[in-house]
Amino acid sequence: MPFDWLIKSNLGSILMSEWSQFNRVLQQRWCRMLSLCLASICIGNVMWNPTYLVSHIDGFSNLTAITLLWASCGGVVHGVGYRPRSVLGQVFVFVPVIWFFFANMLIRFNWG
Fold first, then answer.
1. How deeply is 103 buried, as exposed, middle or buried, from its count of CB atoms within 10 A (0-12, 13-18, 19+)?
2. Cα–Cα dist 96/59, whole Å
3. Rounded to two decimals, what is the model's pTM?
């Protein structure tokens, strides 16, 4: 593996312990419920009144659609309690980025 030296070094063990502590916090029930609630609110906004949503978030480009789909799916995946084992899965369902997108969209939708 290309990063064996990092895992075997002291820096690698420190990073892995910090990452595991961070993941332990994110897997708590309140974090999962927050993800599921935010995903449900954003999905509901898209389904019930899409024209109002589009007018308040300054248009609906392809990038916005893909990001909304990714964040909604990631929020539901995290909310139901799925824990990805691979590093790629953990990066793809990285909860703080998903929460940032949800907060940004809800702020623009409600106060935009």
1. exposed
2. 24
3. 0.68
**pLDDT tens string for the chain (112 positions)?**
555 655 566 665 666 667 677 777 777 888 889 888 888 888 887 888 888 777 777 777 777 778 888 888 888 888 888 877 777 777 777 778 888 888 777 777 765 5
Instruction: Say which residues have a Cβ less than 8 Å from residue 94's Cβ, sequence separation at least 6.
Output: 74
Please state the separation of Cα 52 from the chain's center in Å.
Answer: 24
Tokens of 5: 């030296």
Would you say 98 and 43 are in contact if contact means Cβ atoms under 8 Å apart?
Answer: no
Amino acid 74 reads G
Whole-number Cα distances in Å, 46 to 19, 24, 67, 106: 34, 31, 13, 11
DSSP string, the chain: -TTHHHHHSHHHHHHHHHHHHHHHHHTSHHHHHHHHHHHHHHHHHHHH-HHHHHHHTT---HHHHHHHHHHHHHHHHHHTT----SHHHHHHT-HHHHHHHHHHHHHHHHH-
